[in-house]
Amino acid sequence: MEKTEFSSIRRKLGKTQKQLAALLGMSLKTIHSYEQGWRSIPAHIERQLFFLLIKQRGKNKELIPCWEQKSCPNREACPAWEFQSGDLCWFLCGTLCDCTNDVSYRDKISICRECSIFKRLTE
């Protein structure tokens, strides 16, 4: 995640830097550092930001689970199905779609960013 995307998501969440720092459990200086590009944004922070953004936007949308959208033949073996979190497939590690099983979260999110499900959730 680049600094501009980080700042953009913060604004979409309607949070000041101070409010986002409190929400993420970090210092205001850390948020400044991310937005200025002085520090790289760790994968776990990127993950939390997308989670918050999607949950905020999902309040007004009827979400169709990923296994239905993709007609998944392995749904019962997938963590998204097991935990009935078809809108959080991008968040969960070990999902079975699009070769994201057994990859790091950083690799997984780069695959998920191209997925129509993730794109719909973050639009």
TrEMBL record:
<dbReference type="InterPro" id="IPR001387">
    <property type="entry name" value="Cro/C1-type_HTH"/>
</dbReference>
<dbReference type="InterPro" id="IPR054687">
    <property type="entry name" value="Two-CW_dom"/>
</dbReference>
<dbReference type="Pfam" id="PF01381">
    <property type="entry name" value="HTH_3"/>
</dbReference>
<feature type="domain" description="HTH cro/C1-type">
    <location>
        <begin position="9"/>
        <end position="37"/>
    </location>
</feature>
<dbReference type="InterPro" id="IPR010982">
    <property type="entry name" value="Lambda_DNA-bd_dom_sf"/>
</dbReference>
<protein>
    <recommendedName>
        <fullName>HTH cro/C1-type domain-containing protein</fullName>
    </recommendedName>
</protein>
